[in-house]
């Protein structure tokens, strides 16, 4: 289990303490509370990252997939 309490940053996600608290409050990530500490399993963090991963695209790859930019170019 990896611990992440509000005053520290998560080394895997590089998230601010406020964002981590929000994830916990909204129950968007699995966690375990030990006393006043909030702990996360590495597998839960990996699952969160995988389900919320965005796809990066260059202009070239966007245009070759048939997409159009808002400016029409």
Report on the architecture of this protein.
By secondary structure, this protein is an alpha+beta fold. It is built from 3 helices and 3 strands. It has helices at 17-25, 42-51, 59-64; strands spanning 2-3, 32-34, 37-40. Strands 1-3-2 form a 3-stranded antiparallel β-sheet. A hairpin with a 2-residue loop joins β2 and β3 (37-40). It is elongated and about 55 Å long.
CA radius of gyration:
17 Å
Gap between N and C termini, in Å?
48 Å
| Low-pLDDT regions | none
Query: What is the approximate shape?
Result: elongated
The largest sheet has its strands arranged as 1-3-2
Beta-strand percentage?
5-15%
Average pLDDT metric: 77
In short:
The protein is α+β, with helices and mostly antiparallel strands.
Descriptive key words:
73 residues; alpha+beta; three-stranded antiparallel beta sheet; 3 helices
List the helices and strands and how they pair.
Layout: E1 2-3, H1 17-25, E2 32-34, E3 37-40, H2 42-51, H3 59-64
Antiparallel strand pairs: 1-3, 2-3
